[in-house]
Design the sequence.
């Protein structure tokens, strides 16, 4: 049975092009198009909500993309794939869209009306296929339709000395929402530095870091060359750069070839940490497609560090955590709401040398 897709975009040209790319696939059928969010809701009702994936533009008249996501998640949650422009404003809206319930996004190559959308046609098709099987439950999005407010208990600046302990977190599809859940629960006095590698193109990771910073008691920002890993500081790998750490615990960014078609790659970061932090590492793999992070988690476990993966029930896509688990390298398999507490306990255990 073909994957049923509703294409939503205010540009007639983009609706036509997206539909052509998807309809060329034997297992995908565009069952409708909509010119704005209100039109999309009406079309979904006419289709009795019998749609597997919605592709959604964010910048639309009448009812914009964010409001459309809110309505879909309230009325009848469906997998939503955002098509986003690569501008600062659009990147901020895209991160909000992922928080409101959209599962993934694709960056349009050249603005809102991308004549060259076929540059990313393989990615578009692959993501539609991967999201088609995802069941979106209302409880999954219950906390994400509210804008973050500055946490009154925070925020202490990153604390002084270079950290002796490191938490490294890798995520992909569904990751931004999972990261929010995790960072909401991390305490300001965590005795470890944090590195985050989220599969995301350039211009979007800065917005992700900013949103996490607004939610968290810990300082979160996009990593820069030469940054030092410090307690109470979380650094997000910038899009299109691999992130490594040298013996002085400084951040090294590079544009070496993609690993498993990915840059940043989680494995690259994790493998660079093992010789520096040895057994004082906690590796975390959250929701995502593929198996990036499996080699890194194996190395962390072999070095005496600890490994945590998100469980199937709370993962948007269980592929990345599953790869670690099936290789026998997951010390803990936990729902997303329990991972922060486990990190805190393991950091304490490492710090106390037990």
Sequence:
């Amino acid at each position: 049975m073909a994957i049923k897709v509703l294409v939503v975009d205010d540009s007639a040209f983009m609706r036509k092009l997206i539909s052509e790319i998807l309809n060329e696939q034997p297992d995908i059928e565009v069952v409708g198009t909509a010119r704005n969010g209100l039109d999309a809701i009406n079309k979904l009702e006419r289709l009795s909500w019998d749609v597997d994936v919605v592709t959604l533009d964010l910048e639309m008249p009448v009812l914009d993309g964010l409001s459309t996501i809110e309505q879909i998640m309230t009325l009848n949650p469906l997998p939503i794939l955002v098509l986003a422009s690569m501008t600062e404003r659009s990147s901020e809206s895209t991160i909000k869209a992922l928080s409101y319930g959209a599962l993934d996004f694709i960056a349009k190559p050249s603005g809102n009306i991308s004549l060259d959308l076929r540059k990313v046609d393989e990615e578009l098709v692959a993501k539609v296929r991967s999201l088609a099987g995802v069941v979106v439950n209302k409880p999954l999005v219950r906390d994400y339709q509210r804008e973050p407010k500055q946490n009154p208990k925070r925020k202490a600046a990153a604390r002084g000395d270079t950290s002796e302990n490191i938490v490294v977190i890798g995520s992909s599809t569904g990751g931004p929402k999972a990261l929010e859940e995790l960072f909401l629960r991390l305490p300001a006095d965590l005795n470890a530095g944090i590195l985050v590698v989220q599969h995301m193109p350039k211009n979007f990771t800065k917005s992700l870091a900013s949103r996490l910073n607004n939610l968290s008691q810990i300082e979160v920002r996009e990593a820069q060359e030469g940054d030092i890993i410090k307690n109470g500081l979380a650094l997000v790998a910038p899009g299109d750069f691999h992130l490594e750490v040298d013996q002085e615990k400084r951040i090294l960014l590079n544009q070496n070839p993609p690993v498993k078609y990915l840059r940043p790659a989680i494995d690259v970061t994790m493998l660079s940490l093992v010789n520096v932090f040895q057994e004082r590492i906690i590796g975390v793999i959250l929701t995502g497609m593929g198996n990036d992070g499996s080699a890194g988690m194996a190395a962390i476990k072999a070095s005496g560090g600890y490994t945590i993966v998100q469980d199937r029930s709370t993962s948007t896509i269980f592929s990345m955590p599953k790869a670690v688990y099936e290789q026998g390298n997951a010390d803990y398999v936990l729902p997303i709401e329990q991972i922060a507490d486990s990190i805190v306990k393991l950091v304490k255990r490492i710090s106390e040398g037990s």
Summary: The longest helix spans residues 336-352. The first strand starts at residue 3 and ends at 8. Residues 139-153 have pLDDT under 50 and may be disordered.
